[in-house]
Structures are given as structure tokens and as C-alpha cells.
Amino acid sequence: MARTDAALVVADAGPLIHLDELDALDVLSGYTEVRVPEAVWREVQQHRPGAFGQTGVQWVRVTVGVPSPRVQAVGGLFTLHRGEQEALTLCLQDGISLLLTDDTAARLAANSLKLTAHGTLGLLLRAGRTGARTPAQVLALLEEIPVRSTLHVRPSLLVQVIQQARAAWGLGDE
Amino acid sequence: MSHLIQAEVPERLWLQAQNLVEQGWASNLQELVNESLRRYLESHQDVLAEQFIQEDVNWGLHGKD
């Protein structure tokens, strides 16, 4: 049975890479542990060699065995990569309900396994909600996504997200 | 894990699907339906991605955890 608290999370490569590109990996410091399966760890190190040097985040590198038949089934259906399959396996194996991923197929697969999945945008906005970053800092990071990160978000959609955040935080339109 | 689904299919689609299986384009109807669903989902990645982003926004701004 997956835990409903979010103290422990499992991370796929996308959010770790994108947050590191934005110098914002510290938004993960509120989690008790950020568990990273081996294939994801290697992928992140390949793209962002310094990412796991982020102080304040409790990284846990985990060697994951053969994906369970359930994960293999959804992995095939959603054509998931090794890292994504390992991340889902780790969630099920350790009873962790929250997967951090920016991959649409991985999110679909997570949903089909009754797991919750959130990505970089959600983590940044959460940082504003929890006080890990000020709303102004979060808005600045959101605006910098197209130029500082490899996260692809349709520009008009990103504008909508920023508007929603400004409204929620009572900052009004620019 | 897999799920058993039941769905009504228009006669014309059904015949076309059976024809594809008979011609060897798919091993059986189950494979054809799975492949069709996979391709449909892939072709709707943008819509899904936007839906997930909106879920992220709601969680990020108003979530409890």
C-alpha cells in the first residue's frame, strides 16, 4: 500500500535535470528523502554532473532489481525507458506514492498504477506555497524556463501558469 | 498487469480490424487494439501534457503536501 504522505519521493530524471538547470534543486530539500533509482542517477549525472552535489537534499541512490510484471506491462504499453521503469518499480517496492517526473508517458503509467506524479512546474509552485522560495522568486524561475532549461512548455501555456500563480498569490497582473 | 475491457465497436470498424488481422498486420485483435490505443495516446501527448501541467499547477498552488 503506497504511503499518502509526501515525505518520501522517487525521482525520474526530468525534474532533477530541469531544476538543476534553474539552480532550484533546493525546492526538494523539504522531502525527507529523494530516492533515485540507479538508471536515473546515471542519466542525471551524464547531463548535469554536479546535480547531486546540491546540499540540503537527502539523496538516496537505489539499485533497483528487475521491474515487476506490473511495471513491465505498463512499461511496454507506454514505451517507458529504463529509468522510468526503475522509478515506478521503486515506488511500488518501497510503498512510495509520489513520483517526480516530467514525462507524459511516465505520468500515465504512474496513474495506471495508482501512483501520484508531479513535475518541475508543480514543484516550483509548491515551493512558493510552502515558503521554500518566495512567490517572486518562483515567478522569476517560471519566466526563465524557456531560456535556462530544457523543459518544453508551450509559451502561451507557461504564460497562463504564471498568471494563475500571480492570481493565487495576490500579486495581480504585471 | 493488464485490464479486460468491453467496448461496442461500429460494424465497419470491426470489419476493418478483422480484415487487418486476417491480412497479418496484427497477430490478433488484442494486439491491434493495444497498438491502436498506444498510437492514439502518443498522438495526444500534447493534450495530455497540458492536462498534467494543469494538475501540477493545482497541486503546486493549492495542494496539502
Plain-language structure description:
The complex is a heterodimer of chains A (174) and B (65). The radius of gyration of chain A is 16 Å and the shape is globular. Helices cover 51% and strands 11% of the residues of chain A. By secondary structure, chain A is an alpha/beta fold. Chain A folds into two domains: 8-119, 5'-nuclease (Rossmann fold), CATH 3.40.50.1010; 121-168, no CATH class. Chain A has a five-stranded parallel beta sheet with strand order 3-2-1-4-5. Chain A has helices spanning 13-21, 38-47, 69-77, 82-94, 104-112, 120-130, 135-148, 155-168, and strands spanning 8-11, 33-37, 59-62, 98-100, 116-118. Mean pLDDT of chain A is 92; it is low at 1-5. By secondary structure, chain B is an all-alpha fold. Chain B has a domain at 18-62. In chain B, 69% of the residues lie in helices and 0% in strands. The chains are: A alpha/beta (174), B mainly alpha (65). Chain A binds chain B through residues 5-6, 69-70, 73-74, 77-79, 98, 104-105, 107-108, 113, 117-119, 121-126, 128-129, 153-154, 157, 161, 164-165, 168, and chain B through 1-2, 34, 37-38, 41, 45-46, 48-50, 52-53, 55-57, 59-63, 65.
Which band does the percent of strand residues of chain B land in?
under 5%
Tell me the span between the first and last alpha carbons of chain A. Answer: 45 Å
| Largest Cβ-defined interface | A-B, 33 and 22 residues
Helix/sheet category of chain A: alpha/beta
Main sheet characteristics of chain B: none
| Basic shape of chain A | globular
Could you tell me the radius of gyration of chain B in angstroms? 18 Å
What is the oligomer described by this structure? heterodimer
So how many helices of chain B? 3
Mean pLDDT of chain A: 92
According to DSSP, the number of beta strands of chain A is 5
Under CATH at level 1, the class of the largest domain in chain A stands as Alpha Beta
Radius of gyration of chain A: 16 Å
Helix content of chain B: 55-70%
Largest sheet features of chain A? 5 strands, parallel
Mean pLDDT of chain B: 87
Strand line-up in the sheet with most strands of chain A: 3-2-1-4-5
Pattern of helices and strands of chain B:
HHH
Q: What name does CATH use for the topology of the largest domain in chain A? A: Rossmann fold
Q: What is the molecular shape of chain B?
A: elongated
Strand content of chain A: 5-15%
